[in-house]
Amino acid sequence: MKPDEKRKHAGPRAADFFQIATLATVSLFATGTTLAADTQAIQDDYFHTGAGHHYLLRADTGIITHTLRDNISVLEGSGGNIVVLTGKDGKFLVDAGIGKSRDKVKAALAAISPAPVKYVVNTHWHWDHTDGNAWMHADGATLVAQVNTLKHLSQTTHVDDWNWTFQPVPAVARPTVLVNDAKTFDFDGSKIRVENFGPGHSDGDLWVYFEKADVLAMGDTFWNAGYPFIDNQDGGSINAAIHWANEAIDHTTDHTLVIPGHGRPAGTRAQVIEFRDMLVGVRDNVAKLKQQGKSLDEVIAAKPTAAFDAKWGHFVIKPDFFVKLVYAGVK
Ligand SMILES: [Zn+2]
After folding, report:
1. Which domain holds residue 21?
2. Distance CA 187, CA 205 (A)
3. Rounded distance from Cα 26 to ligand 1 centre (Å)
4. Whole-model pTM?
5. Which of these three, 248, 275, 302, is where a domain ends?
6. Which of 98, 188, 289, 325 is a Cys-bridge partner for 89, taking CB atoms 3.0 to 4.6 Å apart?
7. How far is the CA of 138 from the centre of ligand 1 (A)?
8. Domain presence at residue 50
9. Which residues contact 105 (CB under 8 A, 6 or more apart)?
């Protein structure tokens, strides 16, 4: 494929989204096409109807700062949760949020302390956790990620379940400190362990454990009270997601605060156990139906998540979509 053709097939950057939406509307009017029908055809994707759309809207309202303990806070409202450790060595962040809310995130960080951001760990490559990389790096932060996260950020990556093609990010937004399995930082008198346990939510997840505070930031391998997205196309699967939840349960106690990628920031081990049990319950229900030879539509119609929907079905990922994500990962 020639470079020009490749560009033609790749989707626009999120930053171009509003301009493209405007152009599409203008051209529809110009050709006299029925707006409603064509709008629907154009718009069923990550940034129009999916999670990206949800996070762009959410970024219009304020950032909520949750103060946990031992100088650790969580900023909620810029894509995925952003975890902040602040101290005399500067700030150590987990995830970068989305660029749209840069000014709000900057203000929230300044309100915590004047210390500069020294490190940002990307828990994985998804836009809602890495789109803020460029400005954070420009402000002096070193970007840290698992090797496969750098791979996705450096190349065109299409995600079928989001109906979207993500372009490579500019060089300045790419992580430069890479982790395979584990890396430990000595920061502000505490050890910070950054670890990968193989495939999970994607092929490049990291969790970040702040030893002194006993706080574990899990990125999207934990969603607190909402069905999770699973990036099946990029190494994730329901079984891998269950594996990560089990690792978290093994590595924590009732004293540990467990921070999810999405959902209520100050989670507990008990809530990770609930999350794991939900994943296992839905996995088993879906697998049983699939083994009976049922198609995806038939499995969705059978409502295998029914027992869990009241608690988990009202967040970003709705029950039918979650069943699709699970179905793809079971035999
Ligand atoms: Zn994600």
Report:
1. 3-43
2. 21
3. 33
4. 0.88
5. 275
6. 188
7. 24
8. no
9. 63, 75, 78, 82, 97, 132
